[in-house]
Design brief:
The complex is a heterodimer.
Chain A: H1 7-16, H2 22-35, E1 42-45, H3 47-62, E2 74-78, H4 105-112, E3 116-121, H5 148-153, H6 173-180, E4 186-191, H7 197-203, E5 206-209, E6 229-234, H8 237-247, E7 277-281, H9 291-306, E8 310-314, H10 322-337, H11 356-367, H12 370-383, H13 385-411, E9 416-420, H14 429-432, H15 437-444, H16 449-454, E10 458-465, E11 471-477, H17 483-497, H18 505-510
Parallel strand pairs in A: 2-3, 2-4, 7-8, 7-9
Antiparallel strand pairs in A: 1-3, 4-6, 5-6, 5-10, 9-11, 10-11
Chain B: E1 5-15, H1 54-66, E2 70-71, E3 74-75, E4 78-81, E5 91-94, E6 101-111, E7 119-133, E8 137-141, E9 146-150, E10 157-163, H2 170-187, E11 199-208, E12 218-223, H3 226-245, E13 254-258, E14 263-266, E15 279-280, E16 287-288, H4 307-312, H5 318-329, H6 333-341, H7 345-355, H8 360-377, H9 389-400, H10 406-417, H11 424-430, H12 439-454
Parallel strand pairs in B: 12-13
Antiparallel strand pairs in B: 1-10, 1-11, 2-6, 3-16, 4-5, 4-15, 6-7, 7-10, 8-9, 11-12, 13-14
Classes of the chains: A alpha/beta, B alpha+beta.
GO molecular function (chain A): ATP binding; glutaminyl-tRNA synthase (glutamine-hydrolyzing) activity; transferase activity
InterPro entries (chain A): Amidase, Amidase_dom, AS_sf, GatA
Pfam families (chain A): Amidase
Chain lengths: ~525, ~450
C-alpha cells in the first residue's frame, strides 16, 4: 500500500489482507513527520502512544477482528481538540503544557475505532486566523512550497528557498499540511468561518465542513459555539465520507447535536448528473477574486452543464453583510468563551500576586496574543448593555437573513451551490504577513463564512494547479444534513478534474514500497 | 410630618434539591471535602459543554405551579459575565430574557395582635422564577494574603424567585419567606434550610411618601435567618427614614446585615456599576415544555416534560393542609399555622389525636402550649422530642377518663420529659397522682387535714 492510497478502497484492504502492518504504516508516517519537520505542521508528536495503538491494532488484525475501516489508520488532530494525556495547547501560551484529562468525543470515536493518533497539529492561536501563521509555535509551511510543481513554476525571489515558502491558509493549516504531505491519512480540523476549507484549498486536499449539529463539539475548544464544527481533511472525497460516518451522530454531552439517528453511507459512483441542479451564486464573484480562479469556476460550471446538469445563476443577496456580521458575533462569543482563562484552575498563571484581579489581568495579558486580546476587547464592547441591541441583536437578525437566502435558493429547486473557496492561490508568507490578522481574515473568509452562518455543509475539492503551480480548490455547499448528496456530487467532480498528486521529494524517499505515481488522487 | 411608605422587594435564591448539578453530573452535597464534587464542566475546563438536568427543570415547574405562575413553554438560557474567583467560567448561566415561570403570587398570613388570635392574609406577587447556576465559595485568608476557592457548590442548580415590591416591613417579609420555605419543603424542590445556604434572601429596601415616586433603594445581603431578615429590613427602613428626615440622601448601594450589631453596613464596593454583558447561551437550545394538548404523539417521554402531568401530582400545599386540619379537627386557623410551622408537629398532633379519645380541640392545647414550649425551651425539634405521640396520647387518655387531674397531668408530662422510659401509668402510680374516686377515702383524708389544722 502507498501513503497516497484511499482508505476504503486500498489501505483498509491492504491491512486486512496483511499486505501492510499497522506498525509499519505508523512508522512510515512518523519518519515522514520527522523529515518534514520544517513544515512545522505538528505541535506534538505522540510517538510512543501511537506505536502502542498501532501494535494493538496489529493484534486485532492478526486475530481477524479489526474494529472497522479506521483500525490502524494513522490520523492527526488539530491542537484545539482535547486529547487525554497528550498536550492540548491551541497554539497559545495560555495552554502551553496543558494536559487535558479527557478526550473530545470525536477523538474518542477515532480511538474507539482503532485509529492511530500520531499527534496534534499546528494552528493560528485559538483558531483565530486564516493563515496558520499566528500561533506561538510559529507558522505552518505549505508542503506545496517544496513541491516539484511549485519550484518549476515559481521564480525564486531570493537565493534562499527559506523565504519563498507559501502559507497553508488557516486556521487548520497544520492538519491540512499533514494530510497534504502524506504524514497521515486523515486529520481533524475545525471550521468556524472557513478554517477547514480554506487550508484545504491552499494545500490541495479535501476539506469538509459538516452541517452544524451533526458532529459533536464536546471537547473542541470553542471559538464561536454557534458556528464551530469539527472539520474533516482527507486526500479524497471517499475518505471524507468514511471519516464522517465514524464521527457523526448525537452526543448526549453536546446539547446542540441533533437527536436523529445517523446512518453512515458509502458514496455511489454517480454517472448521470442530468437530474442535478447546480446553483452559481453571483455574489461569490467577490472583489479580489483572481481571474485564474474565476476562469476555473466558470470551467467547472461548464463541466456540469456539458454533462447534462442544470446550471443556474442564483442570488444570495445578503452575502456582502456576512463578514461584518461574523465580526460582531464571533468577537462577542470569543469575549465570552475566553473569560474562563484566568489562570486559576488550569493553564498559564501569572506570578502577579497583588490581588485576584491583577493576577487575572496579568495572566490574560501574558497568555493571549494580540489577535485574541483584540477580539476579546471588541466582543466585550459589542456586548455592553448600551451596544447590545445595535450590534449583537442586529447581527443575529442579519444572520437570519443570510440563512434565509440559502433556504430560498434551495427551495427554488437548486440542489448544490458551486463557488470558489478562496480568492487566490496561497500567498507567500512574507507577503501574507504584510497585512494584520484582522484584515486577512476579513478578506479570506468571504467565500466560506456564510455557510457557517447558515450552518450548512460545505466541502472544498482540489481542482487544479494555478499558474504558480499551487493548488486551487472549488467549494460545494449543500442542504442541511444532506451530506450524502453533497459528497456524491463532490466525488463526481473530483473524478472529472483529476487533480494532480503533489510531488514531494521527502514523500518519495519514505514511500519506497509500492509507490505508484498517479496523476490524480482519485480512484475509479 | 408626612407618612413614610416603606417598599421591600425580595429576591430569593433556593438551592434545588437534586442528586446532581444543573448542567453537569457531579453530586450535590453539603459540607463535602473541598473540591471533591467538581466535574470537568464545573471547573470550566476548555471544551466542556452544559447538559441540562431534567430534575432541576421539574423542580422549577413544580415551584412555579405552586406559586400560581404561568409556566413558559419556551424559556431561554443566557450568560451573565463577571470575573470572580468563585466563578470559573467567568460567566454564570442564568435565564435573563425569558425565564421558566412568570406572574405568580404567594399568599401568606400574619397575626394582627401578639396573642395570635387574629390572622390576616396578604399576597405578594411573584415576578418570575428563573433557573441558574450557583457559584463556588471563596474564603479570604487575610493573614496569608490568599483566597481559597472551593468549587463544590459551583454549578448547583438554583431557582431565583423574584418578588414584586409588595411587602412593607420586616414582619411581612419574614412571613412571606417562611411560607415560601414551607411550600418548597412540601414540594421537595428545595430543602430550603437557610443555615445550610439552601435558601438565601436579599432585600431591596426603599422608602417614599405615598403618592410620590419610589425612593432610591438599597440592596441588603448577608441575611442568615428569617428572624434576621425581619430585623435587617426594619433596621434599614428606619435608617433610611432617619437619613432622609435629616436632609440626607440614600445611595443606591449594597449593604450587608451585621447580625451582631443588628444593623446594615455598606458592603465593600466590588467594581461600581457592573455591566454583565448578557449574551444568549449558545450551547443550550431553548427549553421547550409541553402540556397534554401540545405533547406530540410519538415523542420519547424521557425527553419531554409535561406540565399538566406535574400539576396533577403536586402534593397538598401548606395552605391546603392547614384548611384540612381546621376542617377535620375543628382547630383554629392560627393553630394550623403553628402546627405547620414546626417540622413534624402536624404529624405528631394527628398521631396523638388518633391514639386518644380526647377531642382534637383540647389536644391542640397540649401540643401548642405544653409540648411546643418544652421543645422550644430545650431547643429541640419535634423529631428529637423525648415524649412520643404515643406517650402523650396515653397521658391524655388518663386525663380524659378522669383518672388524673389536669394539674397531675402536667406533672406527669414533666416527668415524661425526662425521657426515662416510664409510661404515664407508671408515673401516676409511682407518684400517687391518681384521682381518688372513693368517697370514703376522700373523707378520711379531709378529716385528717382538718384534725391536723385544729392541733395548731
Amino acid at each position: 500500500a502507498a501513503l497516497n492510497d484511499g482508505l476504503r478502497s486500498q489501505v483498509s484492504a491492504a491491512l486486512k489482507e496483511g499486505r501492510v502492518a499497522p506498525t509499519e504504516l505508523c512508522q512510515r508516517c512518523l519518519a515522514l513527520i520527522k523529515s518534514t519537520k520544517f513544515l512545522n505542521a505538528y505541535i506534538t508528536v505522540a510517538e510512543e502512544t501511537a506505536m502502542k495503538q498501532a501494535e494493538e491494532s496489529e493484534e486485532r488484525y492478526k486475530r481477524g477482528q479489526p474494529l472497522g475501516i479506521l483500525d490502524g489508520i494513522p490520523v492527526a488532530v488539530k491542537d484545539n481538540f482535547n486529547t487525554a494525556g497528550i498536550e492540548t495547547t491551541c497554539a497559545s501560551n495560555m495552554l502551553k503544557g496543558y494536559i487535558s484529562p479527557y478526550n473530545a468525543t470525536v477523538v474518542q470515536k477515532l480511538l474507539d475505532q482503532g485509529a492511530v493518533l500520531l499527534g496534534k497539529t499546528n494552528l493560528d492561536e485559538f483558531a483565530m486566523g486564516s493563515g496558520s501563521t499566528d500561533g506561538v509555535f510559529g507558522p505552518v509551511r505549505n508542503p506545496w512550497s517544496y513541491s516539484k510543481q511549485y519550484k518549476e513554476k515559481s521564480v525564486p525571489k531570493s537565493d534562499s528557498e527559506e523565504s519563498d515558502w507559501v502559507i497553508t491558509g488557516g486556521s487548520s493549516g497544520g492538519s491540512a499540511a499533514a494530510v497534504s504531505s502524506f504524514t497521515c491519512f486523515a486529520a481533524l480540523g475545525s471550521d468556524t468561518g472557513g478554517s477547514t476549507r480554506n487550508p484545504a484549498a491552499h494545500c490541495g486536499v479535501v476539506g469538509l465542513k459538516p452541517t452544524y449539529g451533526l458532529i459533536s463539539r464536546h471537547g473542541l475548544i470553542p471559538l464561536v459555539n454557534s458556528m464551530d464544527v469539527p472539520g474533516i481533511l482527507t486526500r479524497c472525497v471517499d475518505d471524507a465520507a468514511v471519516l464522517l460516518g465514524s464521527l457523526a451522530g448525537h452526543d448526549p454531552k453536546d446539547s446542540t447535536t441533533i437527536q436523529d439517528d445517523f446512518e453512515p453511507f458509502e458514496l455511489p459512483n454517480l454517472t448521470d448528473v442530468s437530474k442535478l441542479s447546480i446553483g452559481i451564486p453571483k455574489e461569490y464573484h467577490a472583489p479580489g477574486l483572481s481571474s485564474e480562479i474565476l476562469a476555473l469556476w466558470s470551467k467547472a460550471a461548464d463541466l456540469f452543464k456539458n454533462a447534462g446538469a442544470k446550471v443556474v445563476e442564483v442570488s444570495l443577496p445578503h452575502t456582502r453583510y456576512s463578514i461584518v456580521c461574523y465580526h460582531v458575533l464571533c468577537t462577542a462569543e470569543v469575549a465570552s468563551n475566553m473569560a474562563r482563562f484566568d489562570g486559576l484552575e488550569y493553564g498559564h498563571r501569572s506570578d502577579m500576586k497583588d490581588s485576584t484581579e491583577s493576577m487575572y489581568a496579568a495572566t490574560r495579558r501574558e497568555g493571549f496574543n494580540d489577535v485574541v486580546r483584540g477580539r476579546i476587547l471588541s466582543g466585550n464592547y459589542f456586548l455592553l448593555k448600551q451596544n447590545y441591541e445595535k450590534y449583537f441583536v442586529k447581527a443575529q437578525k442579519v444572520r437570519r437573513l443570510i440563512a434565509n437566502d440559502f433556504v430560498k435558493v434551495f427551495r427554488s429547486g437548486v440542489d448544490i451551490l458551486l463557488t470558489p473557496t478562496t480568492l487566490s492561490d496561497a500567498a507567500p508568507y512574507t507577503e501574507f504577513i504584510q497585512e494584520d490578522n484582522r484584515t486577512r481574515s476579513t478578506q479570506d473568509d468571504i467565500l466560506t463564512q456564510a455557510a457557517n452562518m447558515a450552518g450548512l455543509p460545505a466541502i472544498n475539492v482540489p481542482t487544479a494547479l494555478s499558474e504558480r503551480g499551487l493548488p486551487v480548490g472549488l467549494q460545494f455547499i449543500g442542504r442541511s444534513f444532506q451530506e450524502k448528496q453533497l459528497l456524491t456530487v463532490a466525488k463526481w467532480f473530483e473524478k472529472q478534474v483529476q487533480f494532480p498528486m503533489i510531488q514531494l521529494e521527502e514523500v518519495k524517499r519514505h514511500d519506497s514500497g509500492v509507490f505508484q505515481h498517479q496523476k490524480s488522487a482519485s480512484f475509479s | 410630618l408626612a407618612p413614610w411608605a416603606p417598599v421591600v422587594g425580595l429576591e430569593i435564591h433556593a438551592q434545588i434539591s437534586s442528586n446532581s448539578k444543573l448542567f453537569s453530573g457531579s453530586q450535590v452535597q453539603f459540607a463535602a471535602p473541598p473540591n471533591s464534587l467538581v466535574s470537568f464542566f464545573d471547573a470550566s475546563l476548555p471544551g466542556t459543554l452544559p447538559v441540562l438536568n431534567r430534575r432541576c427543570v421539574e423542580a422549577a415547574v413544580m415551584t412555579g405551579l405552586a406559586l400560581n405562575c404561568s409556566i413558559n413553554k419556551k424559556s431561554l438560557f443566557d450568560r451573565k459575565h463577571y470575573f470572580y474567583a468563585d466563578l470559573p467560567a467567568g460567566y454564570q448561566i442564568t435565564q435573563q430574557r425569558v425565564p421558566i415561570a412568570v406572574n405568580g403570587c404567594l399568599s401568606y398570613s400574619l397575626c394582627i395582635d401578639s396573642k395570635m388570635s387574629q390572622m390576616v392574609t396578604k399576597t405578594v406577587r411573584i415576578k418570575q422564577i428563573q433557573l441558574e447556576q450557583d457559584s463556588g465559595k471563596s474564603l479570604h485568608d487575610d493573614t496569608r494574603s490568599q483566597t481559597l476557592v472551593d468549587l463544590n457548590r459551583a454549578g448547583v442548580g438554583l431557582m431565583e424567585v423574584v418578588m414584586e415590591p409588595d411587602v412593607c416591613c420586616g414582619e411581612e417579609a419574614a412571613a412571606a419567606v417562611r411560607e415560601l420555605q414551607l411550600i418548597l419543603q412540601t414540594l421537595g424542590s428545595s430543602q430550603a434550610v437557610m443555615a445550610e445556604g439552601q435558601l438565601r434572601v436579599d432585600a431591596n429596601v426603599s422608602v417614599h411618601h405615598p403618592g410620590e415616586p419610589y425612593g432610591v433603594r438599597t440592596e441588603v445581603k448577608n441575611i442568615n435567618s428569617i428572624r434576621f431578615l425581619a430585623k435587617a429590613i426594619d433596621y434599614e427602613i428606619q435608617r433610611q427614614i432617619e437619613e432622609l428626615e435629616n436632609g440626607g440622601t440614600i445611595l443606591n448601594e449594597t449593604r450587608a446585615f451585621d447580625s451582631k450589631l443588628g444593623c446594615t453596613v455598606p458592603m465593600r464596593d466590588k467594581e461600581g456599576k457592573q455591566d454583565y454583558r448578557f449574551m444568549p447561551e449558545p450551547n443550550l437550545p431553548p427549553l421547550i415544555l409541553y402540556d397534554t394538548k401540545s405533547l406530540p404523539a410519538n415523542m420519547n417521554h424521557q425527553q419531554v416534560i409535561n406540565i399538566d402531568w406535574i400539576h396533577e401530582r403536586l402534593p397538598d400545599l401548606p395552605s391546603v393542609k392547614r384548611k384540612k386540619l381546621v376542617e377535620k379537627y375543628g382547630i383554629l386557623p392560627e393553630h394550623s399555622f403553628t402546627l405547620l410551622n414546626e417540622d413534624g408537629l402536624a404529624e405528631f398532633f394527628e398521631s396523638v389525636v388518633k391514639r386518644t379519645q380526647m377531642k382534637p380541640k383540647k389536644v391542640i392545647g397540649w401540643i401548642l402550649n405544653d409540648l411546643l414550649s418544652y421543645l422550644k425551651q430545650h431547643s429541640l425539634t419535634v423529631k428529637e422530642s423525648p415524649v412520643s405521640s404515643f406517650l402523650l396520647g396515653d397521658l391524655l387518655n388518663l386525663l380524659e377518663k378522669k383518672e388524673i387531674s389536669s394539674t397531675a397531668a402536667k406533672q406527669v408530662f414533666a416527668e415524661l420529659w425526662k425521657g426515662e422510659g416510664k409510661t404515664p401509668l407508671e408515673i401516676v402510680k409511682e407518684q400517687k397522682l391518681g384521682l381518688l374516686q372513693d368517697q370514703k377515702e376522700l373523707e378520711q383524708i379531709c378529716q385528717a387535714v382538718i384534725d391536723g389544722q385544729e392541733n395548731e
